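Entry:
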Amino acid sequence: MARIAGVNIPNQKRVPIGLTYIHGIGRTKALEICNRIGIPPERRVHELTDDDVLRVREIIDRDYTVEGDLRRQVAMNIKRLMDLGCYRGLRHRKGLPVRGQRTHTNGRTRKGPARPIAGKKK
C-alpha cells in the first residue's frame, strides 16, 4: 500500500482515483500529476514502482498544498473572517449558509435538524 502525504492509497484503485483520497487533490489535479510523471491513467496503484511513488510524493510535496496544511489554511481563513466581523464571518459564527442560499425553507444541512417551537400549533 502506497503512503503519500500521510494517506494510505488503496492498492486496487487506478492511480488518478487513488490520489483523490488525499485531501486537496481532486480528479483534475490527480490526472495532471499522472501526466507530469508519465504514468498512464489506467495503471493501478499496486503496479507502481517505488521510484514512481517517490516521484509522485515529491511533486505533491513541492507543488501542492494538501492534508494538514490545507486544513489549517482553510481554518485560518474562516477564523480571520469571524474575527473581522464581516457578513461571511457572522454567518460562519451563527452556523448558517454563507453563500447567499435561502434559509426560510431550506438550509437544514447547516442549521441541523428542525426543532419544534412551543406554542406554534394553530
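Strands lie at 2-4, 7-9.
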